[in-house]
Amino acid sequence: MPIFNRGLRILLGLALAFASVSARAAATSYSYALLGDAGEWNSLGASVEKSARDAHVLDGILIGDNLYVGTYDQQWTPWFRDGFRFPVVAIGNHHGGYAEEMRYFKMPAEAYTTWIAPGVAAIVLNSDNVATADAQAKFLEKELRTLRAESIFVVYHHPMLTLSAAHSWKEREAFHRAVRPILYKYRKRLSAILNGHDHVAGAFSFGDLPVFLSGAIKEAFPFRSVNGMQENIRVKTEWAYRGRPTWGKLTVHPHSRESTIEFIEANPTRSICHVRVRTGEWLYLGDDCYRPIRGRR
């Protein structure tokens, strides 16, 4: 009898493991925490980590500035200890060296494509490295020309147009002048651009191209909305959250052109704005994005 029970438990365990793998393969959606400017473990970053963990979003997209002080182990061990994984990592202007960041996160340094769901791709560039701007632009064009994907997100650290008084797009002008024309040439293939650098959480439009910032992790800066022409492109703040630790939850669906980004304040955890994106189209703000936030401290 004990042998029978042990065998039954083994068979049951195998069945459950197979069911878990099958369920993951057949998942109807995949969610990622958008984490820019997160490379310093402090109370704000800890609140974001807890908020994402409580929301069961353990896959993260790092959008640059992945190390401000100390070592990678010192800053990222708390995340790894709690089960986080980082399948997408972009380099920012705060790092421990390109080679060290590659080694630590086990990723290419720049100009690579990874699949974040069946039929959904992330193209990752290194906006900090202006020396390879032309080569990265060629890689980007090749990928946008040939990728068989329903949704494509382009991930890099520095916004290609100015969104705050803290930074100007001309900080990495050579990169942007090389890459920006490619993005607009293949605009209809793009779902959105994912950026950091400005320590803000927000949704923006560059012409009709959606751009999302999720940089309010290490610290969250006060912010003024922008609405004007830059480089013959209308730059507009569609929604932004000022001075709070906030992260974005990107949810994508296999072989779908539609995705959502939900902005979540970390302390206390609460959803504050849903945005829907569809490949090649304008972004669509949810009704909650227009409501004032109550109970702000």
Question: Which terms summarize this structure?
Answer:
297 residues, alpha/beta, Purple Acid Phosphatase, chain A, domain 2, 8-stranded mixed sheet, 7-stranded mixed sheet, 15 strands, disordered N terminus
Structure notes:
The chain starts with a helix and ends in a 12-residue tail after the last strand. It has helices at 2-25, 43-54, 72-81, 98-105, 133-146, 173-185, and strands at residues 30-35, 59-63, 85-90, 112-117, 120-124, 151-155, 192-195, 201-206, 209-214, 227-230, 233-241, 246-252, 258-266, 269-278, 284-285. It is of the alpha/beta class and 297 residues long. Helix 5 (133-146) runs parallel beside helix 6. Strand 10 (227-230) and strand 11 form a beta hairpin. The longest helix has 24 residues, at 2-25. It has one domain: Metallo-dependent phosphatases (Purple Acid Phosphatase, chain A, domain 2, 4-Layer Sandwich), CATH 3.60.21.10. The strands form two sheets. It has an eight-stranded mixed beta sheet with strand order 4-5-6-7-9-8-11-10, with helices on one face. Strands 3-2-1-12-13-14-15 form a seven-stranded mixed beta sheet. It is built from six helices and 15 strands.
Condensed summary:
With 297 residues, this protein is an alpha/beta fold. The protein has six helices and 15 strands.
